[in-house]
Write a structure and sequence with these properties.
Helix content: 40-55%
Oligomer: single chain
Strand order of the largest sheet: 1-3-2
Largest sheet: 3 strands, antiparallel
Number of helices: 4
Strand content: 15-25%
Order of helices and strands: HEHHHEE
């Protein structure tokens, strides 16, 4: 996860001031492909590597008040097109 942090920061910088975890993950997969694939590869032992990595990304955001703050939740689609409740984040000032 440590190797993914710079890519997460870059992806956040390319998003609007308010975004969901799913939107961040899609931005990571689009603009930070090597870092995202490497992080996903690091979770191959998990039965659900995507879910495992995405959960860690969400936990990282929750602990990163210097980057983002929680702004509620909403339903949106994940990278597989499945709708679920998802955290909304607002960039820190």
């Amino acid at each position: 996860m440590e190797n993914l942090v710079p890519a997460i920061i870059n992806a956040i910088n390319n998003l609007t001031d308010e975004f969901t975890t799913h939107e961040l993950i899609m931005q990571l997969a689009k603009s930070e492909q090597h870092a995202y694939i490497q992080a996903l590869h690091d979770h191959l032992e998990s039965e659900k590597p995507f879910q495992s990595l995405h959960s860690k990304i969400g936990k990282f955001l929750a602990q990163s008040n210097h980057l983002v703050n929680s702004a509620g939740s909403k339903r949106d689609a994940d990278i597989f097109g499945q709708s679920s409740d998802n955290a909304i984040w607002k960039k820190s000032a």
